[in-house]
Design goal:
Helices cover 35% and strands 14% of the residues. The chain is an alpha/beta fold and 643 residues long. The strands form 6 sheets. It has a 6-stranded mixed sheet, with helices on one face. Strands 15-16-17-18 form a 4-stranded parallel sheet. Helix 13 packs parallel to helix 14, helix 14 packs parallel to helix 15 and helix 17 crosses helix 18.
């Protein structure tokens, strides 16, 4: 009866909103289980619009993991766009799931994906639309338990007031474990449920930790206040990547990525000092070629997608990349299948690989040098010579690709205007190489973002560039990177300021987030949606200075808000690497030499003795010397434990 009433309301309002296909469900491959005869129910929420959330691989993996349980179901929830929200509030329609159109309040567990900090106010808006209290302490066992996971949760403190428990690390296993724990405790009070959740390795329950502050606003201590809470919450690692997800839901409307992704490798061994993902996703785990090929075949059969994206932090570092390119070319070269390899590294992308990708769409190649002088490359530990960049450009242009896209960062530690000028010089040199081969058809697209120091990286101690410094550097780039063949795009400075505040914020930021939402902030990831003046007002009303979080250098011994979150990389390793950056010293790839970052002993600590023995760290060799395994049709171990 309730659902029928909802259907009648939706029939009235959906013709009045943009893209009504966002709100109706029924996609090909969606899973609709018998609600009344399924014991435990999970709502999986991506706190942004359908167009973005439907391209999120993490949500799809969890969707499959839960729905594979015979006594459980998972359904999807996305944030409605402004016009739909207005109608929902006017018609008193609570936020509902797409599969069965049940209210969030009807579920046992609400899992929220938080890949980046700009989604925080959307989470509050989502809870409010669901008719739920915003703050965790105001929700008892009659509400679904709210958990959150994703990369931004490695510093969970800004959202600690609103989330019951955070998943620290990888979610494939832990989501089912949390669901089973709650299922067994149905009827227990919320406090006891959370005590049980806190015992699960990788789960962080904020209310079980007390935070004390020094007079200068820095953290004095973070201490557990119950025996169930560990002093440090060690991240969850999946030792063997689960079978690739291949039953992708075919969306009702165009999404930001109309393609099917396959994660070919998780983790990275390069050690770029600015890279949050490279530090928190250790160790490296790689899929064998037969598993990837089987997944491609299943995706084509199950979905009809014509483009496959092979995901990793560094696709050309995937040890089987040439073998995989050969296999794809042999099987699909005349089928019209398009294969994309994002995140290619200049120094590991060979002409041979470019030839093997020659049958894919010639849209262009993307590289991320990040810096353009030897000094800056040493500081960030990402050394690529100008000649390597030019050689890669010649290889790309000579094979018919017209466009090369480069990503650079400005605002790195110790950066000067001369270092920024070097970006201009390098991009113009690359364009000249393209014009020699392609004439005026050659293009160089340049994307420039502002460096933001992130938790759990060697640069978590450094100050972020000020608004004025970034503006000066951007002005130089805008003045000189213009003309035929050069196309520059850059990040909004105030949005970078905002991300910098949230990235290293502490628990006091919770009241700022709530106040900003009350003032009307939401969709902060959208350029038109971010209202920096309202955020500054919320900070001021709560007595917090944004510069405290962005523009001050941290003492080496400062206690960080996230120090009780263990990303399995020693803080001493990060300190040493930070001090090396000051001296301009670099580390080689971890595949060539182990630097004892801590991931291997932590991995052994969290696995059983039998599992730990099975995953001993192999002798580390340079990539070109490593034996290619897993090509004989058998499932090879897909983990390479290197720090």
């Amino acid at each position: 009866m309730v659902i029928n009433k909802l259907d009648r309301k939706l029939k009235r309002i959906l013709p009045r909103v943009t893209k009504p296909g966002r709100y109706v469900g029924g996609e090909y491959n969606s899973i609709v289980k018998d609600w009344d005869n399924t014991d435990f129910k999970v709502a999986l929420a991506f706190p942004d619009i359908y167009d973005l959330g439907m391209s999120n691989l993490g949500i799809m993996i969890l969707y499959e993991q839960i729905n594979n349980q015979s006594d459980m179901l998972a359904e999807r929830i996305f944030s409605p766009w402004l016009d739909m929200e207005e109608h929902m509030r006017a018609e008193d329609i609570p936020l509902y799931s797409l599969e069965s159109r049940h209210s969030i309040r009807d579920f046992d567990l609400l899992g929220i994906s938080l890949p980046y900090e700009q989604l925080y106010t959307n989470v509050l808006n989502l809870l409010d639309l669901a008719g739920m209290p915003l703050r965790s302490l105001d929700r008892d066992e009659t509400y679904p338990l709210v958990i959150a996971g994703g990369h931004s949760c490695y510093n969970p403190e800004p959202m600690a007031d609103f989330i019951d428990a955070f998943v620290i690390g990888e979610g494939e296993e832990i989501i089912v474990e949390v669901a089973h724990t709650l299922q067994a405790m149905r009827g227990a009070n919320r406090y006891d449920q959370l005590r049980a959740i806190a015992r699960i390795q990788g789960m962080y329950v904020p209310r079980f930790y007390d935070v004390a502050y020094n007079n200068d606003g820095t953290i004095a201590t973070v201490e557990p206040n119950t025996p169930e809470a560990p002093k440090r919450v060690l991240k969850r690692i999946v030792p063997v990547l689960t079978k690739p997800f291949t039953h992708f839901l075919v969306p009702n409307i165009d999404t930001v990525h109309n393609r099917a992704p396959i994660e070919i490798m998780r983790g990275c061994t390069r050690g770029c000092r600015f890279c949050h993902a490279g530090m928190i996703t250790r160790p490296v785990r790689e899929r064998p070629v037969p598993e990837v090929m089987n997944a491609i075949a299943e995706i084509i059969t199950n979905t009809g997608f014509e483009e496959i994206s092979l995901l990793s932090l560094s696709s050309s570092d995937y040890v089987f990349v040439h073998e995989l390119a050969d296999a794809v070319h042999e099987k699909y070269h005349d089928s019209g299948l398009s294969l994309s390899l994002p995140s290619l590294r200049i120094e590991s992308t060979s002409a041979d690989l470019l030839d093997k990708l020659g049958d894919t769409r010639r849209g262009g190649f993307t590289f991320a040098p990040e810096a353009a002088t030897e000094k800056m490359r040493d500081i960030i530990n990402k050394y690529v010579s100008d000649e390597q960049v030019l050689e890669a450009a010649r290889a790309v242009y000579s094979r018919g690709w017209r466009t090369i896209k480069f990503y650079f960062m400005i605002g790195h530690p110790e950066e000067t205007l001369e270092d920024v000028q070097a970006i201009v010089n390098l991009c113009k040199a690359v364009l000249r190489e393209g014009q020699k081969l392609l004439g005026n058809k050659a293009n160089v697209n340049i994307g420039v973002s502002t460096f933001i120091p992130k938790p759990h990286t060697p640069f978590q101690w450094v100050p972020q560039d000020t608004h004025e410094q970034v503006e000066q550097k951007l002005r130089l780039l805008k003045d000189q990177l213009r003309g035929h063949g050069l196309h520059l795009r850059w990040n909004n400075i105030t949005e970078s300021d905002f991300e910098g505040i949230m990235s290293r914020a502490d628990r006091r930021m919770g009241r700022v987030i709530q106040r900003a939402w009350e003032l009307g902030c939401k969709f902060d990831a959208w350029q038109d949606g971010h209202h920096h003046d309202l955020w500054l007002q919320a900070l001021d009303e709560n007595g917090l200075d944004p510069r405290f979080y962005t523009h001050r250098e941290r003492a080496i011994d400062e206690v960080f808000p996230w120090d009780h979150i263990d990303a399995a990389v020693h803080k001493k390793f990060l300190v040493d690497d930070y001090l090396m950056s000051i001296k301009g010293e670099t580390r080689v790839d971890c595949r060539d030499k182990c630097f004892a970052c801590g991931i291997l002993p932590k991995f052994k600590e969290m696995r059983s003795e039998t599992e730990a023995m099975a995953w001993e760290c192999p002798p580390v060799k340079p990539m070109h010397e490593r034996k290619r395994a897993g090509s004989d049709g058998e499932r090879a171990p897909n983990v390479v434990l290197v720090s």
